[in-house]
What does this fold into?
Amino acid sequence: MRVSKKFMTLLSVVVLSSVLSAAGNPSSFKDFDANSDGTISEKEFDTRKTANMTQRAEEGKQLKNAGNSPQFADLDTNKDGKLSTSEHAKGQQQHMQKQSQMKKQNKNKNKKKGKGQGNGKNSN
It folds into this structure.
């Protein structure tokens, strides 16, 4: 059975959107594509991004990594001024990987500090 590339891309977007929604991230492609034309303009991207950040702030959630959020130009890999479903999905996946790496680095920094149990050297 042969599966088309378009089908696999669409399936990846649907699965990724479901995973992101379950993780508390409501930023599906449909959420960004306000006019439902099948692409995301820079204005649509900025509007949804601002709305997401405002909602998180109103919920009392910290926005400590807001400055690290993806920019439209970073996601628009073919530089046509709009995001396709695949560009959006790839950008979200890369952002999630970056966040995961940052969490691991922060966790490792805390381990190295010894959590208040001395400076990590033998003091015999």
In short: DSSP finds five helices and two strands in the chain. The chain has one domain: 5-104. Strands lie at 40-41, 82-83. The CA atoms of residues 3 and 84 lie 20 Å apart.
